[in-house]
Design a protein that fits this description.
This protein is of the alpha+beta class. Helices cover 25% and strands 28% of the residues. The chain is built from 1 helix and 5 strands, in the order βββββα.
Length: 69
């Protein structure tokens, strides 16, 4: 089985690791590679935080009931 490659989501858009670094998750049962994830760093973290802050401050998100979100 080939490992599935994932991307992170920042501002609703898929992004890769800016550094080009990734990490692999292995199955604890078989030891096989299961998935590959971007090893996001400071740039991606800052972009995600800025997006969350903007959505919280400029939309109805904070007042939206959890069942609707």
């Amino acid at each position: 089985m080939a490992a599935v490659a994932f991307q992170s989501l920042v501002a609703g858009k898929p992004v890769d690791s800016a550094s080009g670094r990734y990490f692999t998750r292995k199955s604890p049962f078989s030891g096989e590679d299961v998935a590959v994830y971007p090893n996001c760093g400071l740039d991606e973290t800052r972009a995600a935080i800025a997006t969350a802050r903007r959505v919280f401050d400029e939309t109805t998100w904070p007042n939206t009931p959890a069942r609707v979100r």
